[in-house]
Amino acid sequence: MDSTAASARTSRSHVTTCSCFVLSCLLAITFQIVIFSPISPDILELPPATSASLVPTNSRLQRVIKLGEGLVETPEDVWVDKNGILYTATRDGWIKRLHRNGSWEDWRKFDSNAMFGITITKSGSIIVCDCEKGLLKFDEDGVTVLTSHVNGNEIRLADDVIEASDGSLYFSVGSTKFGYHNWHLDLLDGKPNGQLLKYDPSSKDTSIVIDGLYFANGVALSTDQDYLVVCETWKYRCLKYWLSGEDKGKTQIFVDNLPGGPDNINLAPDGSYWIAQLQLISSRFEFVHTSKVFKHLIATFPGLYELVKGVDKKAMVVNVAADGKIIRSFDDPTGEVMSFVTSALEFDDHLYLGSLTSNFIGKLPLNANTARGPLLHGGVSCRACCEAISEFFSLPHPHPMSMRCAFNLHGVRYVESDNIDDCGSHQMTPKYVKVQVYNCGKSKSTIGASPSLRLRQVLVSDCGKSKSQIAAE
Ligand SMILES: [Ca+2]
Ligand SMILES: [Ca+2]
């Protein structure tokens, strides 16, 4: 009896010792992770996933023409000069240019693998953001580092740049805390470590225009240069900073709740903007952002980051009007042709696309069907429109896996066109539906659906704002 009790006591004691040991190990590991973690993370609130799902997906980016395939290693940004010569900075330290006759030229070399944003000044100099060296100028005389410090601090992660008409260079700094190779740590950190800076070429001074940005990325000027737009990648939004007028010096939201983390932004000839969207929204990432412990864990074991990031799985660009409304979007939903698209520049009715996973520049024709139209009305493939409507009205989708999309609404069967590329086209036949989808992310209400019209027009609004019908043909 005594020996049995003693044995049970010994066994309990072993269990307790083992439990204590395991607990101590776990505590030690957690302690190690937190102590050695390179971040001091904040919880980051992401926009609801519905904001992304309201932009119907299409596969237009899969139709890009590949320029210079194999010659341009991960070109983050592109610029085209007034003569139609395209410039890009590549990972192997070259500024390469594509002439109108289709020939590529290795134009200037710099000892760097971190050149990103690129623009051309009025005087013809090429200005490049170098994530490790600051702001560079390339011209016939060679390379000059224009600035590498602000307020005595080294500039890290310079990302995108634009020249204003007075010669000032506005440029973004993604993070003052983490460098190019650790940009993902800034995301996990979830803090406003970014800045918008200004370089004055006459005084050679560099100053902070906006501090405390959530990864400052793309920078663009408005048509009249009365404001500039700077994008905050981690916040899925871009801000407007007034350069003149009564709001001079003020900052306000230009567009938020974007379907991805905005990367570079470029002004289009019609006054709208093209914004590349990093595909950071995923259920995995949302989960990570809710837990500081997970952030520490991922920051300590970078292999884990590969499991949750989504930027190399797909690509998307959106066209945003000057009033901040999304007009249209193009994407590669599987990353089959292009992923991690970081910039989109419109020139001569084409989009030129840079990417951090491609070895070419994407060129996408903007034809009449895709070029104009309000909201998502134009530019969305018929199938995407069709699927968006059937989903919006919770209609059964008869052929979910086929290449065709068909559904019934008000007893009328709609089938996507094989011939008409875009739902927004004004030449739709009676059996096709015309759709205008607002993208504000709030309640759903149908504001017009008339089965009596030969040319059906379904207006779907989720803004809860204006109920006024957008003019029909
Ligand atoms: Ca740029
Ligand atoms: Ca960028």
Automatic annotation (TrEMBL):
Pfam families: SSL_N, Str_synth. GO terms for molecular function: hydrolase activity. Belongs to the strictosidine synthase family. This is Strictosidine synthase conserved region domain-containing protein. Keywords: Glycoprotein, Membrane, Transmembrane, Transmembrane helix, Vacuole. Residues 163-246 form the Strictosidine synthase conserved region domain. The lineage of its organism: Eukaryota, Viridiplantae, Streptophyta, Embryophyta, Tracheophyta. Gene3D superfamilies: TolB, C-terminal domain (2.120.10.30). The chain crosses the membrane at residues 20-39. GO terms for cellular component: endomembrane system; vacuole. It comes from the Eukaryota. InterPro entries: 6-blade_b-propeller_TolB-like (IPR011042), Strictosidine_synth_cons-reg (IPR018119). It is found in: Vacuole. It comes from Actinidia rufa.
